[in-house]
Amino acid sequence: MLKQEILETFAKRVSLLRKDRRWSQKDLAEKIGGNVTLQIISNWERAYTRPEVEDIFRTAEVLEVSVDFLLGKTDDPAPQHSENPAHNIVDLKKALLDESALHWDGHYIKGPQKDLIQRLVLAVIEKEMNELS
User: Fold this and answer.
1) Distance from the CA of 113 to the CA of which of 19, 24, 62, 120 falls in 20 to 30 A?
2) Do residue 66 and residue 90 come from a single domain?
């Protein structure tokens, strides 16, 4: 689980970024998609509930900021691209959620294999985030 301090930073930053864009909570929920509703956004902004890892990534993408910024690891909102592959998880996430097929060594990865890879990556990220608490 996210530490309360991180949860509160996430809450403040999501609220501020949403208001800067003059979006309602409903607008943001619709842009994030998935299972995110107006009520979920409201709960996030009051630091009542912990967002799912997948929702944190989608929220960062919609708000055009880095996940690190939303979680308070940096005060620089710009998504960063690092030479260290471990720092580019957002790019991997985007590739896995994209409808197009992936390829590895000339072989296409799609359908069930792509779904499995996505679940494995999300599990690793979830484990790392749980270790923050």
Assistant:
1) 62
2) no
